[in-house]
Design brief:
single chain; alpha+beta; Cytochrome p450; five-stranded mixed sheet; three-stranded antiparallel sheet; 16 helices; 10% strand; globular
Amino acid sequence: MTLLFQPSPPDHVPGERMVDFDMFHVPEGQDDPVEIWHDLVRRGVPRIFYTPRNGGHWVFLDYADIVEAYRDHTVFSTYQTPVPPIEPFPVVQPQGVDPPAHNVFRRLLAPMFTPTAVRGMIGELERRASELIDRFAARGECDFITEFAERFPTSTFLHLFGLPEEQLDAFLALANVFFRSTDAETRARNIGEIYAVLDTLFREKERNPGNDIASAIVAARDEEGRQHPWEDILNCGFLLFVAGLDTVTNTMAYIWRYLATTPAARRHFRERLDDPDAFLRAIEELMRINAVSNLFRRVTHDCEYKGVQLRRNDRVVLPNTVANRDPRVFSDPQAIDLDREVNVHLTFGVGPHRCIGSVLAKREVMVSLQQWLRRIPEFELAPEQPAGSAFGGSVMGFTALRLRWVRVEA
C-alpha cells in the first residue's frame, strides 16, 4: 500500500531546532501532564522546534503561530493529521476536511449546538449530573474520573445520539483505547470497532428515526435531495464520538483538582451560583489555564514559515496550554483570575474549525459544578492518589482523581 501522507525524513531540520520531546511521555513523579509543555518554555527551547518522537513533528509554542496554524488551512491542513501518523485514518466530518468542503457537515451540525439549542438541554444535563452525584455524595468520597467525569459527558453523548444507556461502559472502553494507545495495530482495530458501532447505530436510525442527532444526520439531504454518502455519515458520527468525550472529561478533572486544593476558588463559585454570567466567566478562566488538548495539523506543501523550512506532510502540534499562557496576550498569564474580563483563550481553537460543540462543553461543566457545589460545597483531594495516573498526548489528563469530603446525608 502506498502511504500518501507520511512525513519525510527530517533532513530539512537544522540541528538547533531539534528537541528530543515526547508529548505522550509523562516522567515518573510528575503529577501534572501539562507541565511537560511548560517545561519546554522554561528551558528556552526554540519557539518553533522539531522532535523526532512519534513519527516526527513540529511544535509551535507562540500564541500567534498557533492561531496562524488554526486559521490558514492552505498551509496547515486538518486532513490526515494523526500523530503518530496512521494510514488510512478516518476523514472525520467536518473537522478533518478543509474549507470550503467542511461547510457541508458544519452547516448540518451547527443548529444542534447553538446557545438556544443547548439551553433546551439544561434540564436533562441537570438531571444527569444530580443522578450521578447522588450515587456517592453520602459516601464522603469518590474517584471523580471513573464515577463522574467520564460518565457524565459520555452518557450525555448517548442521550443526544439516541443510544441506550446500557452501552455506556462499552463506549467508555472504546474511547479510552482511542485516546490512550500509541500502538498502530491496536488503534486501527479500535477505530474499526468504533465504526462498526456507528454503522449499526445509523442503520437503526434510518429504519426507526427519532428526535436525536444521529437521526438528523441520517435524514439530512444534500442540495440535490440525496442522502449524504454513507462514509461521510459515519465520519461525522466518529467526530462527535471522539470530540465530545475525552476533552470534557479531562477539563473537568483539572477544574475539580484545582478547586479541591483552593478554598477561595470554591467560595468564589458558591457565592455566584445564582449569577450565571459571573459563574461562566470564572469557568472560562479555568478553561484557559487548564487547556487539555494539543491539536494537529499537516503541512500541505513545501514552504517557508517565519524562516523555518516546512515540507509537505510534516505534522505540526499546537499545544493550547502554552498559547493560553503567552504573556504577550494575557496579563499575568500564570495567575488564575476568576474575574478576568478579556479572555481570548484558544481552548476551543479558532478559525474555520473552532470547536462546534464549545457551547455544550461549557454548559456541561457549568451545570456539573453547580449541581456539585449544591450537594458537596467543600471537598479536597484524598491524601493518597494512585501513582502514574497522569497521561499526555493529544488530550492530557488523569485516569484517577480521588476526592473526599464530610459525608452528606442523601
